[in-house]
Design goal:
290 residues; 6-stranded mixed β-sheet; 9 helices
Protein backbone atom coordinates (compact mmCIF):
# COMPACT_ATOMS: atom_id res chain seq x y z
CA UNK A 1 0.00 0.00 0.00
CA UNK A 2 1.45 3.35 -0.98
CA UNK A 3 2.53 5.80 1.66
CA UNK A 4 0.84 9.15 2.01
CA UNK A 5 2.15 11.79 -0.35
CA UNK A 6 2.65 15.35 0.85
CA UNK A 7 2.12 16.89 -2.54
CA UNK A 8 -0.46 15.51 -4.93
CA UNK A 9 -3.54 16.28 -6.80
CA UNK A 10 -5.62 14.64 -4.23
CA UNK A 11 -7.99 17.39 -3.54
CA UNK A 12 -8.34 18.25 -7.12
CA UNK A 13 -9.37 14.81 -7.93
CA UNK A 14 -11.46 14.72 -4.81
CA UNK A 15 -12.93 17.99 -5.53
CA UNK A 16 -12.94 17.17 -9.11
CA UNK A 17 -14.85 14.08 -8.38
CA UNK A 18 -16.03 13.31 -5.68
CA UNK A 19 -14.85 13.30 -2.80
CA UNK A 20 -14.80 10.70 -4.39
CA UNK A 21 -15.63 9.57 -1.54
CA UNK A 22 -18.88 8.91 -0.77
CA UNK A 23 -17.53 6.22 -2.11
CA UNK A 24 -18.74 3.69 -0.16
CA UNK A 25 -20.53 1.51 -2.38
CA UNK A 26 -18.88 0.33 -5.38
CA UNK A 27 -20.03 -1.46 -8.37
CA UNK A 28 -17.46 -3.29 -10.24
CA UNK A 29 -16.63 -5.48 -12.95
CA UNK A 30 -15.70 -8.80 -14.24
CA UNK A 31 -12.05 -9.38 -13.76
CA UNK A 32 -10.24 -10.93 -16.61
CA UNK A 33 -6.49 -10.72 -16.00
CA UNK A 34 -5.28 -10.17 -12.50
CA UNK A 35 -1.86 -8.57 -12.41
CA UNK A 36 -0.76 -10.12 -9.14
CA UNK A 37 0.50 -8.35 -6.02
CA UNK A 38 2.26 -5.04 -5.98
CA UNK A 39 1.30 -2.16 -8.20
CA UNK A 40 3.60 -1.33 -11.07
CA UNK A 41 4.95 2.19 -11.14
CA UNK A 42 2.67 4.53 -13.02
CA UNK A 43 4.17 7.25 -15.21
CA UNK A 44 3.14 10.75 -14.15
CA UNK A 45 0.01 12.14 -15.76
CA UNK A 46 0.71 13.90 -19.07
CA UNK A 47 1.60 17.57 -18.78
CA UNK A 48 -0.76 19.99 -20.48
CA UNK A 49 0.72 21.13 -23.77
CA UNK A 50 0.42 24.84 -23.07
CA UNK A 51 0.78 26.42 -19.65
CA UNK A 52 -2.56 27.77 -18.48
CA UNK A 53 -4.46 26.17 -21.35
CA UNK A 54 -6.92 23.31 -20.76
CA UNK A 55 -6.41 20.36 -23.14
CA UNK A 56 -7.22 16.67 -23.37
CA UNK A 57 -3.86 16.08 -21.71
CA UNK A 58 -5.53 17.20 -18.47
CA UNK A 59 -7.89 14.19 -18.47
CA UNK A 60 -7.28 11.70 -15.68
CA UNK A 61 -8.77 8.58 -14.10
CA UNK A 62 -8.64 8.00 -10.35
CA UNK A 63 -9.89 5.13 -8.20
CA UNK A 64 -11.54 6.49 -5.04
CA UNK A 65 -11.75 4.16 -2.06
CA UNK A 66 -13.62 4.82 1.17
CA UNK A 67 -12.58 2.45 3.96
CA UNK A 68 -14.20 2.96 7.37
CA UNK A 69 -13.82 -0.38 9.23
CA UNK A 70 -15.61 0.94 12.32
CA UNK A 71 -18.87 1.09 10.36
CA UNK A 72 -18.60 -2.66 9.56
CA UNK A 73 -19.21 -1.81 5.90
CA UNK A 74 -16.87 -3.09 3.18
CA UNK A 75 -14.71 -0.56 1.31
CA UNK A 76 -16.52 1.58 -1.24
CA UNK A 77 -15.00 1.77 -4.73
CA UNK A 78 -15.74 4.56 -7.21
CA UNK A 79 -13.88 5.02 -10.48
CA UNK A 80 -13.70 8.67 -11.42
CA UNK A 81 -12.93 9.94 -14.91
CA UNK A 82 -12.28 13.70 -15.02
CA UNK A 83 -12.43 15.56 -18.37
CA UNK A 84 -11.67 19.23 -17.56
CA UNK A 85 -11.75 20.40 -21.18
CA UNK A 86 -15.41 19.32 -21.38
CA UNK A 87 -16.09 20.17 -17.73
CA UNK A 88 -17.26 16.60 -17.09
CA UNK A 89 -16.71 14.20 -14.18
CA UNK A 90 -17.79 10.61 -14.71
CA UNK A 91 -18.33 8.46 -11.59
CA UNK A 92 -18.70 4.69 -11.93
CA UNK A 93 -19.80 2.64 -8.92
CA UNK A 94 -17.98 -0.65 -8.44
CA UNK A 95 -19.63 -3.00 -5.91
CA UNK A 96 -17.20 -4.44 -3.39
CA UNK A 97 -18.59 -7.94 -4.01
CA UNK A 98 -17.72 -7.90 -7.72
CA UNK A 99 -16.06 -11.03 -9.07
CA UNK A 100 -14.70 -12.22 -12.41
CA UNK A 101 -12.62 -14.92 -14.04
CA UNK A 102 -8.95 -14.04 -14.33
CA UNK A 103 -6.65 -16.46 -16.10
CA UNK A 104 -9.20 -19.18 -15.53
CA UNK A 105 -9.54 -18.47 -11.81
CA UNK A 106 -12.21 -16.51 -9.97
CA UNK A 107 -10.95 -13.24 -8.48
CA UNK A 108 -12.67 -10.41 -6.62
CA UNK A 109 -11.96 -6.74 -6.13
CA UNK A 110 -12.15 -7.09 -2.34
CA UNK A 111 -9.57 -9.91 -2.31
CA UNK A 112 -7.26 -7.71 -4.33
CA UNK A 113 -7.81 -4.83 -1.93
CA UNK A 114 -7.24 -6.98 1.15
CA UNK A 115 -4.01 -8.43 -0.25
CA UNK A 116 -2.50 -5.39 -1.95
CA UNK A 117 -4.44 -2.30 -0.92
CA UNK A 118 -5.88 0.40 -3.19
CA UNK A 119 -3.00 0.01 -5.66
CA UNK A 120 -3.87 -3.64 -6.24
CA UNK A 121 -7.57 -2.78 -6.62
CA UNK A 122 -6.66 -0.23 -9.29
CA UNK A 123 -4.71 -2.87 -11.21
CA UNK A 124 -7.67 -5.20 -10.86
CA UNK A 125 -10.00 -2.64 -12.41
CA UNK A 126 -7.57 -1.98 -15.26
CA UNK A 127 -7.77 -5.62 -16.27
CA UNK A 128 -11.51 -5.92 -15.76
CA UNK A 129 -12.51 -2.77 -17.66
CA UNK A 130 -9.48 -2.53 -19.95
CA UNK A 131 -8.85 1.10 -18.99
CA UNK A 132 -5.84 2.80 -17.45
CA UNK A 133 -6.22 4.01 -13.88
CA UNK A 134 -3.78 6.89 -13.42
CA UNK A 135 -3.94 7.23 -9.65
CA UNK A 136 -5.79 6.10 -6.54
CA UNK A 137 -6.95 7.81 -3.35
CA UNK A 138 -7.98 6.01 -0.18
CA UNK A 139 -10.06 7.87 2.42
CA UNK A 140 -10.60 7.00 6.06
CA UNK A 141 -13.44 8.49 8.11
CA UNK A 142 -11.62 11.74 8.96
CA UNK A 143 -10.52 12.40 5.38
CA UNK A 144 -13.94 11.58 3.97
CA UNK A 145 -15.76 13.87 6.40
CA UNK A 146 -13.29 16.65 5.69
CA UNK A 147 -13.88 16.45 1.96
CA UNK A 148 -17.65 16.47 2.53
CA UNK A 149 -17.26 19.61 4.65
CA UNK A 150 -15.21 21.27 1.90
CA UNK A 151 -18.00 20.61 -0.60
CA UNK A 152 -20.62 21.84 1.85
CA UNK A 153 -22.52 18.63 2.49
CA UNK A 154 -25.43 17.52 0.31
CA UNK A 155 -29.22 17.67 0.03
CA UNK A 156 -30.42 14.19 -0.88
CA UNK A 157 -33.63 12.10 -0.72
CA UNK A 158 -33.24 9.42 1.95
CA UNK A 159 -35.35 6.29 1.87
CA UNK A 160 -33.66 4.03 4.39
CA UNK A 161 -34.51 3.09 7.96
CA UNK A 162 -31.55 4.80 9.63
CA UNK A 163 -31.74 6.33 13.10
CA UNK A 164 -31.79 10.12 12.88
CA UNK A 165 -33.02 10.18 9.25
CA UNK A 166 -36.50 10.59 7.80
CA UNK A 167 -37.35 7.31 6.09
CA UNK A 168 -39.81 8.78 3.61
CA UNK A 169 -37.76 9.57 0.53
CA UNK A 170 -37.83 13.30 1.24
CA UNK A 171 -34.95 15.67 0.53
CA UNK A 172 -32.76 16.04 3.60
CA UNK A 173 -29.76 18.26 4.30
CA UNK A 174 -26.92 15.94 5.29
CA UNK A 175 -23.71 16.97 7.01
CA UNK A 176 -20.44 15.04 6.69
CA UNK A 177 -21.20 12.63 9.55
CA UNK A 178 -24.66 11.86 8.16
CA UNK A 179 -23.28 11.33 4.66
CA UNK A 180 -20.80 8.80 5.98
CA UNK A 181 -23.55 7.01 7.91
CA UNK A 182 -25.80 6.93 4.84
CA UNK A 183 -23.24 5.63 2.34
CA UNK A 184 -21.98 2.94 4.72
CA UNK A 185 -25.48 1.73 5.63
CA UNK A 186 -25.59 -2.06 5.25
CA UNK A 187 -29.33 -2.72 5.12
CA UNK A 188 -30.37 -1.38 1.71
CA UNK A 189 -32.98 -3.69 0.20
CA UNK A 190 -30.83 -4.07 -2.90
CA UNK A 191 -27.81 -5.14 -0.90
CA UNK A 192 -24.26 -4.12 -1.75
CA UNK A 193 -25.18 -3.20 -5.31
CA UNK A 194 -27.70 -0.59 -4.11
CA UNK A 195 -25.30 0.72 -1.47
CA UNK A 196 -22.59 1.18 -4.08
CA UNK A 197 -24.96 2.87 -6.49
CA UNK A 198 -26.32 5.14 -3.74
CA UNK A 199 -22.87 6.16 -2.55
CA UNK A 200 -21.82 7.12 -6.07
CA UNK A 201 -25.03 9.06 -6.69
CA UNK A 202 -24.59 10.94 -3.43
CA UNK A 203 -21.08 11.89 -4.51
CA UNK A 204 -22.36 13.06 -7.90
CA UNK A 205 -25.07 15.15 -6.24
CA UNK A 206 -22.64 16.68 -3.76
CA UNK A 207 -20.33 17.79 -6.56
CA UNK A 208 -23.17 19.27 -8.61
CA UNK A 209 -24.65 21.12 -5.63
CA UNK A 210 -21.35 22.64 -4.48
CA UNK A 211 -20.49 26.30 -5.00
CA UNK A 212 -17.95 25.82 -7.78
CA UNK A 213 -16.37 29.25 -7.45
CA UNK A 214 -15.85 28.75 -3.73
CA UNK A 215 -14.25 25.36 -4.38
CA UNK A 216 -11.97 26.87 -7.02
CA UNK A 217 -10.98 29.85 -4.86
CA UNK A 218 -10.04 27.62 -1.92
CA UNK A 219 -8.43 24.90 -3.99
CA UNK A 220 -4.84 25.32 -2.79
CA UNK A 221 -5.72 25.32 0.90
CA UNK A 222 -8.12 22.40 0.50
CA UNK A 223 -5.53 20.39 -1.38
CA UNK A 224 -2.85 20.92 1.25
CA UNK A 225 -5.27 19.81 3.95
CA UNK A 226 -6.63 16.69 2.22
CA UNK A 227 -3.42 15.39 0.68
CA UNK A 228 -1.94 14.88 4.14
CA UNK A 229 -5.01 12.92 5.27
CA UNK A 230 -5.26 10.34 2.48
CA UNK A 231 -3.30 7.36 1.19
CA UNK A 232 -2.53 8.10 -2.46
CA UNK A 233 0.06 7.78 -5.22
CA UNK A 234 -0.80 11.24 -6.56
CA UNK A 235 2.32 13.34 -6.92
CA UNK A 236 2.97 17.04 -6.34
CA UNK A 237 3.64 17.48 -10.04
CA UNK A 238 0.16 16.14 -10.83
CA UNK A 239 -1.42 18.92 -8.83
CA UNK A 240 0.89 21.56 -10.25
CA UNK A 241 0.27 20.54 -13.86
CA UNK A 242 -3.51 20.17 -13.68
CA UNK A 243 -4.80 22.52 -11.00
CA UNK A 244 -5.55 25.31 -13.52
CA UNK A 245 -7.74 22.92 -15.54
CA UNK A 246 -9.50 21.55 -12.48
CA UNK A 247 -10.13 24.98 -10.97
CA UNK A 248 -11.51 26.20 -14.29
CA UNK A 249 -13.82 23.18 -14.45
CA UNK A 250 -15.29 23.89 -11.02
CA UNK A 251 -15.58 27.62 -11.50
CA UNK A 252 -17.25 27.45 -14.91
CA UNK A 253 -18.87 24.02 -15.03
CA UNK A 254 -22.54 23.36 -14.31
CA UNK A 255 -23.98 19.98 -13.23
CA UNK A 256 -20.70 18.48 -14.39
CA UNK A 257 -20.87 15.13 -12.57
CA UNK A 258 -22.63 12.07 -14.00
CA UNK A 259 -22.99 8.73 -12.19
CA UNK A 260 -23.12 5.26 -13.72
CA UNK A 261 -23.80 1.87 -12.16
CA UNK A 262 -22.30 -1.23 -13.75
CA UNK A 263 -24.79 -3.66 -15.25
CA UNK A 264 -24.47 -7.24 -14.11
CA UNK A 265 -25.93 -10.22 -12.32
CA UNK A 266 -26.21 -11.00 -8.62
CA UNK A 267 -25.12 -14.56 -7.81
CA UNK A 268 -25.57 -15.34 -4.14
CA UNK A 269 -23.36 -12.92 -2.22
CA UNK A 270 -21.43 -11.92 -5.35
CA UNK A 271 -21.97 -9.50 -8.22
CA UNK A 272 -20.88 -10.45 -11.74
CA UNK A 273 -20.39 -7.33 -13.90
CA UNK A 274 -21.50 -7.36 -17.51
CA UNK A 275 -18.62 -7.87 -19.91
CA UNK A 276 -20.12 -5.44 -22.41
CA UNK A 277 -21.22 -2.62 -20.08
CA UNK A 278 -17.99 -0.67 -20.18
CA UNK A 279 -17.55 -0.62 -23.95
CA UNK A 280 -19.93 2.29 -24.46
CA UNK A 281 -18.48 4.17 -21.51
CA UNK A 282 -14.94 3.79 -22.85
CA UNK A 283 -15.92 4.94 -26.32
CA UNK A 284 -17.53 8.12 -25.02
CA UNK A 285 -15.40 9.09 -22.03
CA UNK A 286 -12.04 7.30 -22.15
CA UNK A 287 -10.82 8.07 -25.67
CA UNK A 288 -8.90 11.33 -25.52
CA UNK A 289 -8.93 13.56 -28.56
CA UNK A 290 -5.60 15.00 -29.59
Amino acid sequence: MAKKKSGSIAVPFLLTIFIGLIIVGGAAAILYNYLGFGKKEKPPLPVPRTSGQVTYADNHTVLLVLDVPETKAPPTFVLMRSIPIKKEIILISIPSNSIALVDGAQQSIIDNYNSGGAASSAEFIEKVFDVEVDRYMKFDSAAFRKICDIFGGVTYPVNADIAGFKNDGSQQDLNSEQIETFVTYMMFSGGEYERSLTATDVLKTMINQADGKRIADGFDNSFNTIINMVDSDIKAVDYKNHKVAIKNMFENGRSMAVAFSVDGTTAGDNFIPSASFFEGIKEKYFKDQK
